[in-house]
Amino acid sequence: MMRNTDAPKILLAHGDGGLLSDELIRKTILPHLAKEMPSELNDAARLELSSKSICFTTDSYVVKPLFFNGGDIGKLAVCGTVNDLAVSGARPLALSLSFIIETGLEIELFEKILESIKKTAEENEISIVTGDTKTVEAGSADKIFINTAGIGIRMDEADLGFSKIRAGDKVLLSGTIGDHGMTIISQREGIKFETEMNSDCAGIAKLTCKLLESIKGIKFMRDPTRGGLAATLNEISKQTGLSIEIDQNLIPINPTVQAAADVLGLDVLGVANEGKFVAIVSAESADDCVKICRQHPLGKVASIIGTILETQDVPAVEMITKIGGRRIVQMPYGLELPRIC
Amino acid sequence: MLDRIYKAQNLISEACKKQGRAINIMEVCGTHTVAIFRSGIRATLPEGLNLLSGPGCPVCVTDQSYIDTVLELADKSDVLIATYGDMIRVPGHGGSLETRQPANNVKVVFSSQDAIQIAKDNSDKTVIFLAVGFETTAPATGVIVMQAAREKIENFCILSGHKLVVPAMRALLSGKNDKIDAFLCPGHVSVIIGYGAYEEIVRDFKRPCVVAGFEPIQIIEGLAEICHQLVEGAAETKSIYKAAVTEKGNLKAQQIISECFEAADGYWRGLGKIDKSTLKLKDKYSRFDAYQRYNITETPHAELEGCRCGEVLCGLIRPPECSLFGKKCTPQSPVGPCMVSSEGTCAAYYKYGTRRKKS
Amino acid sequence: MCLAIPARIIELTGDNAVVDAMGNHFKAKTTLLKDVKLGDLVLVHAGFAITIVDEEEARETWELIAEINDYNKTPNKISG
Prior knowledge:
The complex is a heterotrimer.
Chain A: H1 19-33, E1 54-61, E2 67-68, E3 71-72, H2 73-87, E4 90-102, H3 107-123, E5 127-136, E6 144-154, E7 170-173, H4 179-185, E8 194-195, H5 205-214, E9 218-222, H6 228-240, E10 243-247, H7 255-264, E11 278-281, H8 286-294, E12 303-309, E13 317-320, E14 326-328
Parallel strand pairs in A: 4-5, 10-13
Antiparallel strand pairs in A: 1-6, 2-3, 4-6, 7-11, 7-12, 9-11, 10-12, 13-14
Chain B: H1 2-19, E1 23-27, H2 30-38, E2 49-53, H3 64-74, E3 79-83, E4 106-108, H4 112-121, E5 126-133, H5 138-150, E6 156-162, H6 165-176, E7 182-185, H7 187-193, H8 199-205, E8 209-211, H9 216-232, E9 237-239, H10 251-260, E10 261-268, E11 272-281, H11 290-293, H12 309-313, H13 337-340, H14 345-353
Parallel strand pairs in B: 1-2, 1-7, 3-4, 3-5, 5-6, 7-8, 8-9
Antiparallel strand pairs in B: 10-11
Chain C: E1 5-13, E2 16-21, E3 24-29, E4 41-45, E5 48-52, H1 55-61, H2 63-66
């Protein structure tokens, strides 16, 4: 985005708790986020919880660029929090929102992010109940960083954990992989290219809650963000000591995403997703899980992609390839750099 | 597609049985190495077929002295290094381009075009483009050298690490590893040089040379064609990558290479000195040659103790046979180039081929 | 050893092209090709088109072109 030198900008003073801070909160932040102006602005939100069994998560968002096909840092922050709660078996309830803003950020840009946060929170039925804003000198942060903490009420039906997983269980994947990570990479300096790809950034709680309500036999869930499907499956394998076999023919991938990965020499299995989940489910419940997912807009191409197996020697994740061959799927190492060779 | 795969696999099986001994086929292309691993082809091949990975990874065969030169040049305050992503993690003395501080004068580019644009945009700095790769990539370097000459872009030069595939194949058969029965030839190098370029290997060494693309079906059908030739006792150069490769290759690209470069003797990590195997800028373009501009001579380095990359590159051993593999030498802490490069044989084995052994 | 995928030329001015690879648009130079025109299928490597691709043969070679991934038409058969 071209910086308009005349547009109003965030100043250092907006973060120091004085008049400008107050103005930023009352005139910019709250109007964009709150359904109604709260009568009091207290130091902490008071929540009345219907259960003692809560899930609590935190995350920070530093994505670049701030706006991308299919989302922005604000949407990502809300969805990321919602999804962490969702895969823990919770119904999202509330989240906190902390901003660290670089001096010089245009207020208009900040407002766009706030709008997106509000819209996403409403869609995902999660309330923003508390927050904080700090400003730092130019150069000390990259435009804006967002930190969230989220609370959800754990569903009674949720009995999830690595220890529940058994050999014979099935691996359920809720949709296509690689969309978010490849979209972000397409915007990266040095390899920027136009694309029809979109980030899959979305809150999956309504789908996971529906699943948990309807099906017994869901043992474990995780959202395959950084490190992609490969990282998630390797974590499961490592923590359980079991092996996993997946079938490449059953993994849904958008051809545009695959082509972009092919051009850059990247392996889609290790690319981040922001609107998907992996679930380990009992074999008997697998078909029903897929049916339920496919009735939901975020699970239209959900598939069973593999099986948990007893380990022969060392736990490993192995993939049957499109041509009937086999290869190991390792934990991805760091950020893969696009190659030419 | 699947029935073509089964047909090719059957042919390969039959051929292995008929040969009565193991068949050794070498691929000399890092992209083939990765493609073979990612598609899991090895698991579908019969026992009697050994698929060897050769010196086809341009990063792996670049001597450490090259990266040491780059690191020294990168320290100059008026220099910007423009490089393909492949070179970023290669370790030299005191780190890699990725780890050295400050890192702000290293730009990863996707195209040589970007490198010359960086020179145009930064007239107060000298841009040094790390020109690595085989014949597929050399024309892209040639184009920007010619452009620099035409447009008088003087704050630009290249550090040529370009290498030629056929001399390496000759060197392998002439001494390093004469157990190679045939070559699966690189698809995209062949787009440039043409499949006729392998005639001399057939003529002088009687080994089949078959060019294949990188899709699994291409690789399997390429192997089947080789097996067919071996069983018939024939040796020909052939291409099954009909979509892209012709006998003569891309003549315009070849002209650009010969306009800018001449073949020079060069040192290949693991293979030693190979005559006329690297590309050096011709005298008329010497002002764009970083070696000339900065008066650099490189002395090949000895390998680190225990490192057997040389033998891996010649197809003499497989990575797990090296005692450092997976223990002291991993992608996270690589000892030798075969593990550093994402196309290196050891890295590919580690990522796609092996289960971790209980230590 | 070289990553290159087939892409179609959708814009061409001089030797500056924009190519489409299954919905991704990249810049590519056609400096290395003699007669190339809008609509041609080319192989692009490191920002340069290195050859024009024979369409018939391409269908035989590249899965992406030959077998359209129908993930969004008919989801995989429910297995279990």
